[in-house]
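Changelog entry: the Amino acid ABC transporter substrate-binding protein (PAAT family) record was regenerated in this release. Current contents:
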Amino acid sequence: MTTRRSLLKSAVAAGSFVLAGLTLTAPVAADELETLKEKGKVRIAMSGAYPPFNFVNDQNEVVGFDPAIGAEINKRIGLETEIVTTAWDGIIGGLLAKKYDAIVGSMTITDERAEVVDFVGPYYTTRRAIFTKPGSGITSLDDLEDAKVGVTLGETHEEWAKEKGYKVRTYKGLPELIMELENGRVDAIVNDSIAAILALKENGYEYEMFDDPESEPFGAGIAIRKDNPDLKAAMQAALDAMMEDGTYTAIAEEWIGEDIR
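Regenerated structure tokens:
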């Protein structure tokens, strides 16, 4: 999952403006790990619309692989977890505005995003895939040229599809994407492969898919605000320990059905 170049450029521009207003005598800000420990909790953000990685269950609770990973990392640092759901296309802006403390929402690590946030991880790996209904005749990227292509607003897949010149339709999240494909309002959807496969199978929908042959597998990371080396190191150490002691595998098998690191 991901945020468009325009938002990131705006964030970079805003950051440049703020820096320009600082004097050389301005005090160095304390690392946010200290502040979070004083508060006793970490606010982690996600869309809540990306099952099984993060979604709202029948009890109106945000659950899934991402919340479980985030909560376990925070517990090992000695902090409670508060989950915040927000629209994906503005999620980095919300982090920079300090509406929450980290993004644990299956965010793809990209060089462009790394210009404005720091990443912990990756905590799992997936790749871009194209999904269609059986018998659609769409079996390659060339076949998408005349197709209606559905993507989630703000993801890297949206930017990729627009750069390809496809006829793009944007939606709020994976459940809506799948419904649009099933109802024939789009001819294909583009998404991270693991999440889409699991969601399609969960709903009992038949589908065909092929990987984007031009893209390498990519990692999902936890985004935090820049210049917080202590917080980044503590979260990375907790993640590494989870992967070593079997906790990560147990969480992955519960929510995904297999180890996806």
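The chain has two domains: 5-125+219-255, 128-211.
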